[in-house]
Design brief:
By secondary structure, the protein is an alpha+beta fold. The chain is about 50% helix and about 5% strand. It folds into 2 domains: about 160 residues, no CATH class; about 140 residues. It has a 4-stranded mixed β-sheet with strand order 5-2-1-6, with helices on both faces. Helix 3 runs antiparallel to helix 5. It is elongated and about 70 Å long.
């Protein structure tokens, strides 16, 4: 059983009766679910990830103190801490009576301020450019088991993905990095015999290409240790996981260089083809840099369009 299923079962078995019996007046005002930091919130948890911060638990998201006061919040914390310490063979952490930052009672404004810098998720285009996508992913991942008022879910819906102009700005920047690292710097480093620098160039290319693929899928790029796991589940270009992994795991011997170069060409070609399918570029050539500027030129917002092409990366 993964963490999301465990959390939902724990809530329905113990949390829901506790709320119904002890806090019926609060139920219409709060949201309950599991989202935020942790592999279980993405559905990526496994036996290895259970070595820390894994337990039966859920989040009780409260609106501001003008709606749910401190006394009620404290009573909720106490009630949550008294839920069974074991469930379905898993133990709850004894370190915090309210479940710490990941579980238990959390103010909505505190949650969104941590993830987005604002208490209500109200972001400008420039804000979307500056906030790490892994934080936006944590603000919108997981599952909400109930939200009678709809407040928490509506904020999450507004953060569900980047505005289109921001997506294009990030695409432009990452395409430029792909061109610089893969098409220009990698072969020059190889020619000079700088194999260490060549490896760094291939890694930079792979990172930019990976981000580009997520952008083309309208999906936030998660924390790096889950990026390939998430890539393999994407509907578009998931097949590029293999050549990207080869690029960053292989060396730069005379036998490997042509294979690595071919892998870069495969990835770049597939990305450019999808850019054209999505009508994001008008550049006729095959160089990633040319497509970077073409994508940037189609950004509607003039302030964002005229920022440096690498502004959002």
């Amino acid at each position: 059983m993964n963490g999301l299923a465990l959390a939902q079962a724990f809530y329905h078995t113990h949390g829901e009766p506790m709320l119904r019996e002890q806090f019926p007046q609060v139920v219409p005002l709060i949201a309950v679910g599991l989202c935020g930091s942790g592999s279980e919130c993405f559905g990526y948890d496994d036996e290895i990830s259970r070595d820390h911060d894994f337990e039966p638990g859920f989040c009780l998201f409260l609106p501001g103190e003008e709606v749910v006061d401190r006394r009620t919040a404290f009573a909720l914390e106490r009630a949550y801490s008294k839920l069974p310490k074991e469930f379905m063979g898993f133990s709850r952490s004894p370190l915090s009576p309210v479940g710490g930052n990941r579980h238990g009672v959390i103010r909505m404004e505190d949650f969104f301020r941590e993830k987005t810098g604002t208490p209500d998720g109200n972001l400008s285009l420039l804000d979307f450019c500056r906030i790490p996508e892994q934080s936006l992913a944590e603000a919108t991942n997981g599952e909400i088991f109930r939200d009678d008022s709809g407040l928490f879910s509506s904020i999450r819906a507004g953060l569900s993905y980047l505005p289109e102009d921001v997506r294009r700005k990030k695409l432009a920047g990452n395409l430029l990095l792909m061109g610089q690292a893969g098409e220009y710097n990698y072969p020059r480093c190889i020619t000079r015999g700088e194999t260490g620098a060549a490896q760094l160039a291939s890694v930079e290319y792979a990172k930019a290409a990976l981000h580009t693929i997520f952008l083309l899928n309208h999906t936030y790029l998660p924390y790096y240790k889950w990026s390939f796991r998430a890539l393999r589940g994407l509907p578009l270009l998931s097949r590029l996981a293999a050549p990207l992994e080869y690029m960053i795991s292989s060396g730069n011997t005379p036998e490997e260089i042509p294979l690595k170069t071919a892998a870069m060409e495969e990835v770049t070609g597939a990305i450019i083809a999808l850019l054209r399918t999505q009508s994001l570029t008008q550049f006729p050539g095959d160089a990633a840099e040319g497509h970077a500027y073409s994508v940037n030129n189609q950004i509607a917002d003039p302030t964002l369009r005229t920022q440096h092409v690498l502004f959002a990366v």
